[in-house]
């Protein structure tokens, strides 16, 4: 649905986005992940037709974002970062205006406005002036606007930035629901958000794509450093641990008489029973044994940390 | 087309969300009303003091041109500068509208406000023209008034498009207004600061090409429609609108 190839954008001499290539299939919910200033907003602005890339190309639903910009803009719902709105208008007035410039009229317009008001939980405040709304409500108005023309693709730039925890939760829920009807590309720098709402992720760092794939693929990539964490009461013999089959590295630390070891291994599943046997044979008092699952955060830190070093 | 109408509607109503519209209309009506009453005195004066054309005094007065200098920049300063500073331009430019539709919509909304501002002055006309309602005849030749309004309509388009172009270049409304004011001054200054020039001299002839108050004094106010002035107003307006579209477009390439 979204096809980006070798996209590059320079602001003067500063490369905001370099050689970014990725694909978003129809119906996917893709998280666009990266630290602040990584080039997420720039990429999204190029896709939405607000900026033009220095080189490279991008198509949405088969239409080029530069040469066929109008067709692209008809097919996307774009919510910019920080969600700029006309503060002096009422919500319904604003949506009425936006529906008008998006080519919706008459009964269709009223029906879509009612739908998005309901969908984004704005019915109670529909007559309010936007300037008097809280940040959370404004974000919802932005989202409602993006949904107005029922576009097949939604591009949401940090839809949960600046919201309180309850609002973040409800927004994520809404995005998950919308994911059933729309292809969504959403940017965020909050990792747990991607894990909760998306099925694919693209990690971008310093203007380049550092990793992309489904969440499980990305987690597998991070699992190079997978292992077990075990904690014991009293003293243990760590040479016995190190000689255990399949263990590649042992880290040991003792706190308040509890010894906690971190075992690195390529095959965590078969290591667990062997460790149990060893503990039983040596008479160690086991407190816990748990696999250490790599998270997206680990991968993220690996990627962003590596290049910072 | 209907999308453009939606935008025109929003832009036009936006004037009334802020106090600017009311202040502008009030000041404008105050000044033209004062000049109207002066005109009445002059038209009915005995002896050599009077004026010979009904709108002549209004469009020749320094006070009128001072107001006319300030009004277009006040009307256009918001148009793009505000959208850029609040970021709403991004919403507008990612909507399925072409850049020229955005510019034209904003210009037409602005122009509609300008026309609205002039509408109440039509009430002066029956008196100025010595209109007899039972015969629907005018005691004074009405074509001088028609020519004056034609000139005002086109000169207004020129100053408004100039202001819009400036507004599309900057982020601050104040700067947009001041720069537009300065540029408008080029077209007006010789009308406010009236050097005692010999009307046949070279300086006057050069100034006359682009000094709008002189056009009204010599031509439109007396019912003369000179194509040189019409061409000036229309071409400056078209050029400024074109530059505004380009300036908006160039935003995407930065």
Written description of the protein model:
With 309 residues, chain A is an alpha/beta fold. Chain A folds into 2 domains: 220 residues, Rossmann fold (3-Layer(aba) Sandwich); 66 residues, Alpha-Beta Plaits (2-Layer Sandwich), CATH 3.30.70. Chain A is 38% helix and 30% strand. Chain A contains 11 helices and 14 strands. In chain A, the strands form 3 sheets. Chain A has a 6-stranded mixed β-sheet with strand order 6-7-8-3-9-10, with helices on both faces. In chain A, strands 2-1-4-5 form a 4-stranded antiparallel β-sheet, with helices on one face. In chain A, strands 12-13-11-14 form a 4-stranded antiparallel β-sheet. In chain A, helix 3 packs across helix 4, helix 4 packs across helix 5 and helix 8 crosses helix 11. With 254 residues, chain B is an all-alpha fold. Chain B has one domain. Chain B is 74% helix and 2% strand. Chain B has 13 helices and 2 strands. Chain B has a two-stranded antiparallel sheet. The relative contact order of chain B is 0.14. Classes of the chains: A alpha/beta (309), B mainly alpha (254).
């Amino acid at each position: 649905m979204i096809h980006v190839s070798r996209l590059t954008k320079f602001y003067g001499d500063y490369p905001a986005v370099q050689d970014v290539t990725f694909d978003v299939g129809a119906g996917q919910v893709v998280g666009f992940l990266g630290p602040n200033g990584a080039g997420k907003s720039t990429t999204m602005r190029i896709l939405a037709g607000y900026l033009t890339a220095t080189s490279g190309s991008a198509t949405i639903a088969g239409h080029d974002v530069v040469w066929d910009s109008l067709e692209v803009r008809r097919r996307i719902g774009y919510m910019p970062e920080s969600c700029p709105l006309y503060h002096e208008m009422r919500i319904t007035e604003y949506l009425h205006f936006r529906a008008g410039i998006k080519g919706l009229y008459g009964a269709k317009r009223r029906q879509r406005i009612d739908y998005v008001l309901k969908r984004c939980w704005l019915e109670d405040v529909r007559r309010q002036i936007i300037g008097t709304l809280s940040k959370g409500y404004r974000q919802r108005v932005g989202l409602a606007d993006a949904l107005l023309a029922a576009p097949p693709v939604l591009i949401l730039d940090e839809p949960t930035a600046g919201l309180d925890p309850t609002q973040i939760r409800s927004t994520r829920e809404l995005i998950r629901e919308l994911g059933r009807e729309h292809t969504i590309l959403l940017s965020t720098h909050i990792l747990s958000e991607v894990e909760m709402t998306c099925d694919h992720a693209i990690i971008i760092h310093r203007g380049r794509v550092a990793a992309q794939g489904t969440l499980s693929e990305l987690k597998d990539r991070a699992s190079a450093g997978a292992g077990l964490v075990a904690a014991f009461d009293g003293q243990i013999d760590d040479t016995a641990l190190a000689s255990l089959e399949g263990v590649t590295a042992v880290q040991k630390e003792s706190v308040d008489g509890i010894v906690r070891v971190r075992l690195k291994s390529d095959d965590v599943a078969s290591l667990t029973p062997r460790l149990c046997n060893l503990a039983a044979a040596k008479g160690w008092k086991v407190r816990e044994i748990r696999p250490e699952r790599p998270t997206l955060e680990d991968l993220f830190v690996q990627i962003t940390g590596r290049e910072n070093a | 087309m209907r999308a453009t109408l939606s935008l025109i509607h929003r832009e036009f109503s936006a004037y009334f969300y802020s106090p600017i519209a009311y202040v502008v209309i009030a000041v404008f009506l105050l000044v033209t009303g004062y000049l109207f009453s002066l005109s009445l005195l002059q038209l009915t004066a005995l002896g050599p003091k009077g004026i010979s054309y009904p709108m002549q005094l209004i469009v020749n007065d320094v006070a009128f041109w001072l107001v006319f200098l300030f009004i277009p920049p006040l009307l256009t300063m918001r148009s793009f500068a505000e959208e850029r500073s609040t970021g709403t331009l991004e919403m507008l430019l990612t909507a399925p509208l072409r850049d020229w539709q955005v510019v034209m919509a904003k210009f037409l909304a602005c122009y509609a406000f300008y026309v609205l501002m002039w509408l109440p002055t039509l009430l002066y006309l029956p008196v100025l023209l010595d209109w007899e309602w039972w015969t629907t005849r005018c005691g004074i030749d009405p074509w001088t008034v028609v020519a004056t309004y034609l000139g005002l309509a086109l000169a207004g388009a020129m100053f408004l498009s100039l202001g819009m172009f400036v507004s599309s270049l900057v982020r601050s409304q104040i700067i947009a207004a001041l720069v537009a004011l300065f540029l408008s001054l080029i077209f007006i200054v010789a009308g406010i600061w009236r050097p005692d020039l010999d009307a046949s001299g070279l300086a006057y002839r050069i100034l006359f090409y682009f000094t709008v108050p002189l056009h009204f004094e010599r031509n439109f106010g007396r019912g003369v429609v000179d194509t040189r002035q019409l061409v000036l107003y229309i071409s400056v307006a078209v050029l400024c609108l074109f530059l505004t579209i380009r300036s908006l477009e160039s935003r995407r390439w930065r």
